[in-house]
Amino acid sequence: MILSLRMEITDVAQYLLLIAAGREVKHRHLRQLAHYFSGTRSDLEAEGFIELARQIQANLHQQPESRELAAEFLPCLDPPGFRSDAQAQQFIDRFVESLGPLLLWAQPITMGYARRMKGSPFDLTADQTEGIPGWIILYTLEGEGVLDTGVRKLPMRAGNMAAFEPGAVFSYYRSPGANTWGHYWITFQAEAAWRDWMAWPRVGPHIGYLAFADTAREEIEQNLAQLNQCFLSASPMKLELEHNLLEQLILRARNLLPAESQTEIDSRIARAQAFIEDNYNRVFTLDEVAAAASISTSRLAHKFKDQTGLTVLEWRDEKRMMTAAQLLRATTTPISTIADHVGYIDAPYFSRTFKRLVGCTPRQFRSRR
Questions:
Q1: 185 alpha-carbon distance from chain centroid
Q2: Could you tell me which of 54, 135, 144, 357 has the fewest CB atoms within 10 Å of its CB?
Q3: Same domain, 217 and 244
Q4: pTM for the complete prediction?
Q5: Could you list the residue range(s) of the whole structural domain that residue 135 is in?
Q6: Same-domain pairing of 128 and 237
Q7: Quick one: how far is CA 311 from the chain centroid?
Q8: Last residue of a domain, which of 259, 288, 316?
Q9: CA distance linking residue 2 with residue 318, whole number of Å
Q10: Smallest Cα–Cα separation from 304: which of 93, 313, 110?
Q11: How many H-runs (helices) and E-runs (strands) does the chain carry?
Q12: Composition of the chain by helix, strand, coil, percent to 5
């Protein structure tokens, strides 16, 4: 049976409403939804979507907004259904917005494969403006995406992998110059040993980034395919196997790092980074950072620059600008309020600093959304 990629928007809304209401949705309708949103007939995306739908329903008790939305639109499950395409689209948009980020961390490990095709309903920007509550790994299998830290834009081409720690602020989307971007995504809570192994080259606070050579890709991609297959399975040892395969992935990535990138961050510098990232929006002195890191101020200045490529204050300013850029992109919050939120009492000084680091004023940056 060949499922059409074309669906009436009212049917899409109807099936999503069944999910939100905790009602049964036929397997073929879930596959139709998956094909509709991805723009393809890929079984990989379909099975991942079906598993995600199961997780949404299993965790509705943690999604009060979704339950309230379902109650509001429940009459639309009866004839004549949604009154118009506009009403159906309104429900779809509100349903997607109601799915809080905690849903992705409701299970120890959640993963999937997403293909963002130009013009498809899933061809959207994923914004994380509040800081994520767990870890995320992205790996590009095909096409090209863009990872936007707010201060810099990095390509996500085949073989590129990014890791986001709790608190990371970022967005990602299909590159405008590519017709498609296919990537694996994994959400999880990292064990202590994993965090040490994921001390990857930093492209910003809480964000690590790797670019694997073609010779290394096969090993990583086989590992990802096995992990995804395990996630979609009903194996009695599913959780144990997922844990093992994710740990293998993290170890393989670490092992494939160039030798010069495998030098672990000094624990004192890691403590300094943590202090800065927890206090970036207030005034602090180098002496305070040094005290938190149990290191002398002069030694801190030297080692921090040596291991991160930035000074302490440059690291703080990058964190400030990353957060400000995401708020400018994803909200209508006044610029003066954003300035205060990231630690600038003087809004004009914030604007000058933003232009110096990002290349344009906050107003210009917002107008490009």
A1: 8
A2: 54
A3: yes
A4: 0.71
A5: 106-259
A6: yes
A7: 27
A8: 259
A9: 50
A10: 313
A11: 15, 9
A12: 55, 15, 30
DSSP per-residue letters across 266-325:
PHHHHHHHHHHHHHTTS---HHHHHHHHTS-HHHHHHHHHHHHSS-HHHHHHHHHHHHHH
Nearest one of 75, 219, 96, 105 to 161, comparing CA atoms: 219
Distance CA 3, CA 279 (A): 52
Give CA–CA dist 290/272, Å, rounded.
7
pLDDT in tens, 296-310: 999 999 988 887 778
**What is the reported pLDDT for 100?**
62
322 to 121, 129, 164, 173, 358: CA distances (angstroms): 27, 9, 14, 16, 9
Q: Are residues 122 and 198 in the same domain?
A: yes
Distance CA 280, CA 168 (A): 13
Looking from the CA of 6 toward its CB, the CA atoms found within 13 Å total 0
Using alpha carbons only, give the angle 156, 158, 160 rounded to the nearest 5 degrees.
50
pLDDT tens profile 138-173:
999 999 999 988 777 899 999 999 999 887 878 899
CB 111 within 8 A of CB 118: no
Question: Closest Cα partner for 164 from 185, 135, 187?
Answer: 135
- Residue whose token pair is 């509001």: 72
The answer to whether 126 and 172 have CB atoms below 8 angstroms apart is yes
Rounded CA-CA distance 189/160 in Å is 21
Distance CA 79, CA 42 (A): 32
DSSP letter, residue 39:
S
Q: Where are the alpha helices (DSSP H) in the chain?
A: 9-20, 27-38, 43-58, 64-73, 85-98, 192-197, 214-231, 238-255, 267-279, 286-293, 297-308, 312-330, 335-341, 347-358, 362-367
- Determine the Cα–Cα distance for residues 75 and 80; give it in Å rounded to an integer: 9
Residues 226 and 254 in one domain: yes
Domain count, the chain: 3
Strands 207-211, 202-204: pairing kind: antiparallel
Q: Please provide the size of the chain in residues.
A: 369
Report the CATH number that the domain containing residue 356 is assigned in CATH.
1.10.10.60
Query: Does the pLDDT at position 3 exceed 50?
Result: no
Instruction: In whole angstroms, give the CA distance from residue 133 to residue 75.
Output: 35
Q: To which residue do tokens 């030098």 refer?
A: 263
